[in-house]
Design goal:
single chain, alpha+beta, Glutaredoxin, 2 domains, four-stranded antiparallel beta sheet
């Protein structure tokens, strides 16, 4: 059971778009996307239950779940498999790998949510969802998205890094450089007016380590310990 609650076509979602709301049956009961307002949410799809790459990913997500909750973030998985397949797979992971999956998995037999979020590979002959990841902020806006082919497993470490960077820069005053990790120095957002540029130059290194007006380092920023 999956129900779309918006009429717009969201197959070409962009950063800062409002995440389409939906109601769906999951391994933890019926949920709505709006239930997660007030928290960060990682909404991710996987091609199929009982497959090796997806199993490795779910184990990694579960093992990292406490770290994400420290950042006020929850997980919500999805595939086109039935609720019964999801339940059997979750039980199998616990039996074979000793890992209990505690986050919900959406049943999307009708592909309603997958199509809302553009999770279906249009060039594929199957209905398997690609490995999509949507970073949805506490206000319900999409702040980042990553898509992987079915053959390539995701890096939960990289997903955690991206979430940390999104939180660190949400004020708009800072940006993160290449490869930034939680606790590293950030960069100050560059000035966008001539007056602000002159002020940055006048302040010199007062705001941080200044290499030029557009490249000024701020202090290290740690989102969580």
């Amino acid at each position: 059971m999956t129900e779309q609650t918006q009429d717009n076509n969201f197959t070409n979602l962009r950063i800062n778009d409002k995440a389409p709301n939906f109601t769906a049956r999951t391994t933890q009961g019926v949920i709505k996307l709006s239930d997660y307002l007030g928290k960060w949410l990682i909404l991710f799809s996987h091609p199929a239950d009982f497959t090796p790459v997806c199993t490795s990913e779910f184990i990694a997500f579960q093992k990292a779940s406490d770290d994400f909750r420290e950042m006020n973030c929850e997980f919500l998985g999805l595939s086109a498999d039935s609720i019964y397949s999801h339940l059997a797979w979750v039980m199998n992971i616990k039996e074979k790998f000793g890992v209990e999956i505690t986050f919900p998995i959406i049943e999307d037999l009708s592909l309603t949510v997958a199509e809302l979020y553009g999770m279906i590979d249009e060039t594929s002959s199957s209905t398997a969802t690609v490995r999509s990841v949507f970073f949805i902020n506490p206000e319900g806006d999409i702040k980042a998205q990553i898509h992987y082919p079915m053959s390539v497993g995701r890096s939960v470490y990289e997903i955690r890094r991206v979430l940390s960077a999104l939180i660190a820069t949400e004020s708009g005053d800072t940006v993160t450089p290449e490869g930034w990790q939680n606790g590293d120095d950030v960069l100050l957002s560059p000035p966008i007016t001539l007056e602000a540029l002159k002020k940055r130059l006048e302040n010199g290194g007062e705001e941080g380590e200044q290499l030029d007006w557009y490249f000024t380092k701020g202090k290290g920023l740690r989102v969580v310990k």
